[in-house]
Structure formats: structure tokens, C-alpha cells
Amino acid sequence: MVGAGLAGVTTAYELAALGAQVQVFERGGSVAEQASFASSALLSPAVPALPAELPPAPLLFRLRRWRARGQAGEASAQLAALSQLSLARTAALRQELGLEDEATQGLLLALPDAKRAAAVEGHLEAWKALGLSIDLIDATEARRREPGLNPEAPLQAALAVVNGGTGNARLFAQQLRQQARRLGVTFRFHSTVRAVSSDGTGLTLRHDHTPPTEAPTRGAEREPGDTVPQLPGVQDERFDAVVLCNGLGAAALAGQRLPLAALQEITVTAPLRLLEAHPDLGPKAAWADPARGLTVTRIGQRVRVTGGLAVTRPQHRQAPTTAEFETLHRGLQHWFPGSVLHQQVQQGSSRRAVVPDGLPLLGAGGRPGLWLNLSPGGSGWGQACGAAQALARQIMGESALLELSALSPQRLA
Ligand SMILES: Cc1cc2nc3c(=O)[nH]c(=O)nc-3n(C[C@H](O)[C@H](O)[C@H](O)COP(=O)(O)OP(=O)(O)OC[C@H]3O[C@@H](n4cnc5c(N)ncnc54)[C@H](O)[C@@H]3O)c2cc1C
After folding, report:
1. 375 Cβ below 6 A of ligand 1
2. Counting atoms of ligand 1 from 1, which one is nearest the CA of 3?
3. pTM of the model
4. Which residues of 124-153 are buried (b: 16+ CB within 10 A; e: fewer)?
5. What's the average pLDDT block by block, 10 residues per block, for the chain (413 residues)?
């Protein structure tokens, strides 16, 4: 495995559960330090986005995204089926392995005015045809389910995504990593994979030791035995199969053209204000406001607001501005006023990979023995456990759980 984010940890676990010997190479010092670190925590079936929700993007990406719209039919059905499998697998792993990831049930999408409420009605049938259970509920019912909502904020109706909820992706990955280790998976941290080559009899993985340049500030919970002692310099090791789960870094290793762009997002996380007189402050589960492009989620005793989505070139890194963070603070104040302690706010930004059709890249790569599990698009956490389970079965030659041909990386070849 290359990469120990959610995709890498879940796939390593599933492969080991099917009897494979697995090693995970991660350039960082722990699991779930990148895109999986501060996800908005939505655990939701993949709902095809309404056109107005698409994030801003460079011109070429917009053009490719527009061209890809016509091919979405079968792919949307496969993605919806994958996300349903994934939610079921996440629930099963939580239960069987006793994973505690601050899970909540409930996901509502705000429809602030009559125009927006009318616009979604046309989509309900299409979502139903994809097997997605999404109810249109009125404002009174939405406020009953989320009693912390600002009574002054205009609200016409809401979409209730049945089976939607939240979970702390990072906590989940950390606990699943322990379970994977019990099944014999080795985690090799501070190991950066530089190249993957094939000679027809196996794959050679070239990697080198990349020790941290400064003391780790987060996630330094490494354990004895995790990291196989590293020799300095470049090393080559052979494997029967290699699975790329390294997000944006996969483009350099895939041996085929992957038109990956970066989807940047900013987050604000703050402790929930706990007042006995106002027990309903803040969200109970997940509240999304597609019109403002933000989500507000409950993660244990904290509230996270995520927004500011924008597609950029992979190498383009832009520090978020104070004004962008203020938009999130205003959004939180609009929907859940006074619900957090503002003096303990954490602000951050994160990037994940995305391709123009917004679908995962899941399946065989461009050469024998090379596999991809990249979860571009909106709901990588929602798809992680199902994608891992389906791919592990494919790699191990087990019968397929789902038809996933439309999500294969070879659609880009
Ligand atoms: C701000 C934000 C909010 C999100 N909110 C949601 C949400 O609410 N719901 C949802 O379903 N999804 C959400 N997502 C998406 C979801 O979090 C991601 O799809 C998922 O975490 C991606 O996991 P990953 O393992 O593919 O990538 P990552 O977590 O980025 O892991 C990739 C790993 O590969 C390592 N790596 C890269 N290159 C190399 C190399 N050459 N050698 C070794 N290691 C390497 C990296 O260090 C990294 O640890 C969100 C994402 C972001 C950024």
C-alpha cells in the first residue's frame, strides 16, 4: 500500500482480513494526517450534486467537467451502490471491532427559500431510482430534528438523507490501524515511495527514508514495531501487487495519465458551548447548506464548519485568507448562533484529489499488479470502507460484490 490515509488503512485491513501479507508505506509519521485529518465528518451516500453546487475551478477543468456530465448515468448508479455498501461496511466494522468514532445519525440539507425547495423536487425521483432514500421535509420537522437551529434564519424546507450521519474519520482510521496490525499489517512511516516499476513477474517499489525535519505537531502516536528500521538512501523492494492510496501523489506513480486536480477546502473547529439552560446549542448531527457551500457537523463535543471549496492545479497552493474563514464563522453564526467557544477555535485548510468527472478511481491500474484506490470527489470518507472491501476482493480474486467498471481508472486511459 502507498499512503496511510483512510483509503490506505481501510484497504490494508480488508486485504489482511482476506489473508494477504501487507506493508503500508507512508511518508508522514502516522495515519490519516492529510486529507483524512480534518474531514467535515459527513458519512453519507453519494448524492449526485446539483449543478449550482459545483465548486469554482480553472477553465480547463470546468470544460472537462462539463464534457464528463453526459457519461454520468451508469457511473452514478455504481457510485450510489458503492456508497450504500460502504455505509453498511462502516457500520459492520464499528460493531464487530468495537470502533468508537464519535458517530451521530442524521444529515439535513438546508433549503432556505421556496425557489430552492421547488428546484430539488425534480431530483427526488432520480435519486430514488439510484436507490438513495432522501426525504423532503418541511421547516418545522427540520427544526425538530435540529433544535439548535437559529429560529430567525429563513428556512423553507430541508432534504433528509436517510442513512446519513457523521463520524470522526481520523479516529476511525487510527483504531482500524490497530486492528490491521493485529492481522499482521506492517506500517512503515517516514517512507516515501518514489517510483513503481514492473517487469512482468512483479512490481518493484522504490522508496527512501524521509525522517521528519521538525518535531511532529500532530498524530505522533507511533508504536514500537510500526516502522521497519530504514537504511539511508534509496531502496528497491519487490511485491506481488502495489495499491496506490496516496491521493494527489498517485499521479507521479501510476504509470498512466491521471488528470488529478486539487480540491481545496477550509475548516473551522471549535468546542461546543455547554450550557445547562440551553442543552440544544449546536448541531446534533450534520447540517449542510449547499447555497452557502458549507457544512456544520457535530464531532463529539466539538463543532466543525467546512467550506470554501475550490478546485486548483495540484501544484498550486494558496493560503486561505482571513475573509474566507470569516465566511465560515458567519455561516455558523447564521445557523447555530452562540454554539461554540470562539476563543478555542482551530482553523485549517486541506486538499484532496479530484478528477473532472468527480468519480473515484477504483480498480486495476495501467500495469499488471498495480491497483488504485483514490477517492476524488465529495465523499471519500463515505465511500472508504466499501471501496476498500470491493477492491481487496478484486485483488485477491474473490467474487465481486458490485459492478464497478464505470469507476475503473481505465476509463481515463
Ligand atoms: C476539508 C475536507 C473535508 C472533507 N469532508 C468530507 C466529508 O464530510 N465526507 C466525506 O465522505 N469525505 C470528506 N472529505 C474527503 C475525505 O476526507 C477524503 O476523500 C479521504 O480522507 C481521502 O483519503 P485518502 O486516504 O485517499 O487520502 P489522504 O488522507 O490524503 O492519504 C494519502 C496519504 O498518502 C501519503 N502519501 C502521498 N504520497 C506518498 C508517497 N509517494 N509515498 C508515501 N506516502 C505518500 C500522504 O502522506 C497521505 O497520508 C473531505 C476532505 C477534506 C480535505
Report:
1. yes
2. 34
3. 0.94
4. eeebeebebebebbebeebbeebebbeeeb
5. 97 98 96 90 82 80 83 84 95 98 96 94 90 94 98 97 94 97 95 93 93 62 58 90 96 92 94 91 95 94 94 86 95 97 91 90 94 83 96 97 94 84
